[in-house]
Automatic annotation (TrEMBL):
Originating species: Streptomyces taklimakanensis
GO MF annotations, alphabetized: DNA-binding transcription factor activity; sequence-specific DNA binding
Superkingdom as given in the UniProt entry: Bacteria
Record bears the keyword Nuclease: no
Lineage: Bacteria, Bacillati, Actinomycetota, Actinomycetes, Kitasatosporales
Presence of keyword Hydrolase: no
Protein name: Helix-turn-helix domain-containing protein
Pfam family, one: AraC_binding
Keywords for this protein: DNA-binding, Transcription, Transcription regulation
Gene3D superfamilies assigned to the protein according to its UniProt record, in alphabetical order: Homeodomain-like (1.10.10.60)
Chain ranges of the HTH araC/xylS-type domain: 176-273
Length: 286
């Protein structure tokens, strides 16, 4: 499972008998993920090749047998770190799911997260890939059990309470307000200068504050937010062409390009997986 092949392939889906957890299993060579963030957690077990992950603290190189862990709302990128690309199995558990597991199986309290972003842990890698295998086989008991075992292991070994983010400075308040305005005006966003003027600050001051708060500039954050909203609309069955207009992309090709750079699969493949009854496995070829 997860062996290196000659083509890129990916499957992003949800097994409806796993609690609030998306799954991505893929092999990428040329594909690169744009700056983006998730509402929940990322637990990526690399099974072949090398993945380069860009995080606020720098670029990490993850080889086979390693696990990449990213906390909610942390901006990141990903690309191949070797000519053969990389293969991995990724879990995206929600904040609610991780909190429930932590409360039952660890002494961690409050909002929990991972204190380390990259670890070499072949056993955790095995557990994550076995969650995928069980889900693809429709084995709900095994998938659910191993998901909880994997998350518990990672939290006990590498977890801790996440610091509470407080918005104290004027720059942080402006960044938070800019985020709200971009969400409100997603289909017709202001320019950086217009946004800064409305907030009573300068464009470069706002840019710096926004990057410090959200890990990426406003335009990159807006693209990620548009894709996030597009996912919700696609899950509701809205056609991709209509989704593109609804979230502010120029047309369906623009949606497709940005969607794949953030989610890892095309919008059509994503929508088909959400509409499918999850019983048997199978990769959607990229």
């Amino acid at each position: 499972m997860g062996g290196m092949g000659t083509r890129e392939w990916a499957r992003h889906w949800r097994y409806d008998r796993l609690p609030d957890t998306d799954l991505l299993r893929a092999r990428y060579v040329r594909h690169a993920f744009s700056p983006h963030a998730h509402d929940g957690y990322v637990i990526a077990a690399v099974t072949g090749g090398v993945e380069e992950v860009g995080l606020p603290q720098g670029v990490l190189r993850a080889g086979a047998g390693s696990v990449v862990m990213i906390n909610p709302e942390v901006a990141h990128t990903a690309r191949a770190g070797a000519a053969e690309g990389w293969a991995y199995a990724t879990l995206y558990p929600s904040v609610r799911t991780v909190a429930a597991i932590a409360a039952e199986t660890t002494s961690l309290r409050g909002t929990v997260g991972f204190a380390e972003s990259l670890v070499s842990d072949p056993e955790a890698t095995r557990l994550v890939t076995e969650v995928h295998r069980a889900a693809e086989q429709g084995d709900a008991l095994t998938a659910d059990t191993l998901l909880r075992v994997a998350v518990t292991r990672l939290l006990r070994l590498y977890g801790g309470p996440l610091p509470t983010r407080t918005v104290r400075t004027a720059g942080a308040r402006n960044a938070a307000r800019a985020r709200e305005l971009l969400l409100e005006r997603m289909t017709d966003p202001p320019t950086l200068e217009e946004l800064a003027t409305e907030l009573g600050t300068g464009p470069f001051s706002l840019l710096r504050a926004f990057r410090e708060r959200y890990g990426m500039p406003p335009h990159a954050w807006l693209t990620s937010a548009r894709v996030h909203r597009a996912r919700s609309l696609l899950e509701e069955g809205v056609p991709p062409a209509e989704v593109a207009v609804a979230v502010g992309f120029a047309d369906q090709p623009h949606l497709g390009r940005h969607f794949r750079r953030v989610v890892g699969v095309p919008p059509g493949a994503y929508q088909r997986e959400r509409a499918r009854t999850y019983k048997n496995g199978g990769a959607v070829r990229a």
